[in-house]
Write a structure and sequence with these properties.
Quinone Oxidoreductase, Chain A, domain 1, Rossmann fold, 9 helices, 2 domains, alpha/beta
């Protein structure tokens, strides 16, 4: 058995309770990891509250958490690229990060130049950012609008698009203008007048990445001149606008993890600032994120 924070039911943060779960031996293509840090993301909050009941295989009694970093404890049959003792970052589409151990199917080795906290903050956000940049086909000379560009996913997506030679318009709060400017994007004010703010800079855009899920798809389709190159990561009304709702793409997860980790190791990727809290404080972390008293990336320490 390993310590964990368990989803006892759907509802307010109080449904996250300390407990224990059993983690068996790794099967074919799996590794078992002793977790140091687990990332907390906005989808965790949506699952816990009941807005995404049953998604990602979650149910009362399960453990949240899409990403973590730690040390390999055991490897399953057919695994040859890592061995016990190796530091890894893991992406967990089936969840399980809010625990002391986890079984993982997707991982990337952590280079010496990358700390465990940055490693834990990267997998889910990095995979999603690389995926949506690929799905929208961002290319050199194009203009792409990223809504929620100061969040964990949006910040990375903006840097990947800039690296491709695209011009990035970053829709963020005024308080985040300096952050997105530092990574090569042009800030525009996020809000009800988004389309107007964008058109003050350019008449239209080639693609839109919605990393906010905050009801901007009508403006996004209008600015892009159609739905072909508009993608959202979390807007539940995507189908109403005939917009792609992006989700993990199994065959490409590992290569995308490797690509973003290589950029991070080379000092070519900036992540959001991080706050670390003990694993047992997961409920309070959810409460603080929902009340917006916390605006950083939050990591749960399994060792605290």
């Amino acid at each position: 058995m390993t310590k964990a924070v368990v989803l006892s039911d759907y509802g307010p943060p109080e449904v996250l309770v300390p407990g224990e779960v059993e983690i068996g031996p790794p099967g074919p293509g799996q590794i078992r990891v002793n977790i140091e840090f687990a990332g907390v993301g906005p989808t965790d909050l949506a699952i816990r509250s009941g807005h995404l009941k049953g998604a990602f295989g979650n149910r009362p009694g399960s453990v949240l958490g899409f990403e973590a970093a730690g040390v390999v404890d055991a490897v399953g049959p057919s695994v040859s690229d890592v061995r016990p003792g190796d530091p890894v970052a893991v992406f967990l589409p089936e969840l399980g990060g809010y625990a002391g151990q986890v079984l993982a199917r997707y991982w990337v080795r952590v280079p010496q130049s990358v700390g465990a906290q940055d490693a834990a903050a990267l997998p889910a956000s990095g995979e999603a950012a690389a995926r949506v940049v690929d799905e929208t086909g961002v290319a050199a000379g194009e203009t792409v609008l990223i809504v929620g560009a100061a969040g964990s996913v949006g910040l990375i997506a903006g840097q990947l698009a800039v690296a491709r030679g695209a011009r990035v318009l970053a829709a963020v709060r005024p308080g985040d203008f300096d952050l997105v400017t530092e990574v090569g994007a042009t800030p525009v004010a996020y809000g009800p007048a988004l389309a107007e703010h964008v058109r003050a800079v350019v008449p239209s855009v080639d693609a839109v990445i919605d990393a906010s899920g905050a009801g901007v798809l009508g403006a996004a389709v209008e600015l892009a001149g159609g739905t072909d190159r508009v993608v959202t990561l979390s807007d539940p009304h995507a189908a109403d606008f005939a917009v792609r709702l992006s989700g993990p793409d199994g065959p490409h997860i590992t290569e995308r993890l490797q690509a973003v980790m290589a950029l991070l190791a080379a000092g070519r990727l900036t992540l959001r600032s991080q706050t670390v809290a003990p694993l047992v404080d997961a409920a309070q972390v959810h409460r603080d994120l929902e009340s917006r008293t916390l605006r950083t990336k939050v990591l749960l320490s399994a060792q605290a």
